[in-house]
Amino acid sequence: MPKTTATRRTMTAAARAAAKRAERGHRETTPEPTVAGRTVLIDAPKNGWQDPPEPSPEAFEEDEAPEARPTPGRRRRLLTVLLGTLLVAALAAAAVLGWRSWDAHRTETARTEALAAAQKAAPVVLSYDYRHLDKDFAKARAYLTGDFRDEYAKTTKTVVGPTARKYRGVVKATIAAPAAGGAPAASVVSASPDEVVVLLFVNQVTESTQVSGQRVDLNRVRVTMSGTDDGWKVSAVDAL
């Protein structure tokens, strides 16, 4: 073999070896991207590695997947919490609706009962006869309650009674009604379970030594009815 050819081959082999060493040195000095936050153990082969392999991203994905997925026990707990929340909300809504229904029923009952009581009480409270004032006033006080009862007693004793005796006054009050018959002129202005305000149209026929014959007055009267242990009582009367 010629000397030049052998020398060229030797140089070529040396160049390949140098290139391989340079490539291996580049791999050793240039770090590969790594996934931080977890250590993965890989068993080495019997003869060892010249260049140990890097773990693949799939190893981390497979390891993280079971933790990311909710377990059956966790799903049951979440479902229990959700159902409990819905149950509490449903019970609260039912309680509110039940209370409103009960309150509306009480208010409607109050309207009916108080209106009837006002129509019965007003003629008694607004009527009197000088010939038996004490009896009339005592009968009227049975329909009254609270401060208004005390005020009525004071007024009839100091003002109405003496005036009625002096002028022989007689007042008869009735709830106005259509001439052809029908419901009395009475209506509810406002109502709650414990208090009802009623508007009444009252005819008052007055006789006395101060009037010639009979005088008829048509009055609008607002009567406040309050619920008591003894039923609905008059707690205020205002002429309009």
UniProtKB/TrEMBL annotation:
The chain crosses the membrane at residues 78-99. One of its GO terms (cellular component) is membrane. Signal peptide: none annotated. Residues 1-17 have a biased composition (Low complexity). The keyword Methyltransferase does not apply. Its main location: membrane. Residues 20-30 have a biased composition (Basic and acidic residues). The keyword Phosphoprotein does not apply. Keywords: Membrane, Transmembrane, Transmembrane helix. It is found in: Membrane. Residues 1-72 are annotated as: Disordered. This is Mce-associated membrane protein. It comes from Streptomyces ferrugineus.
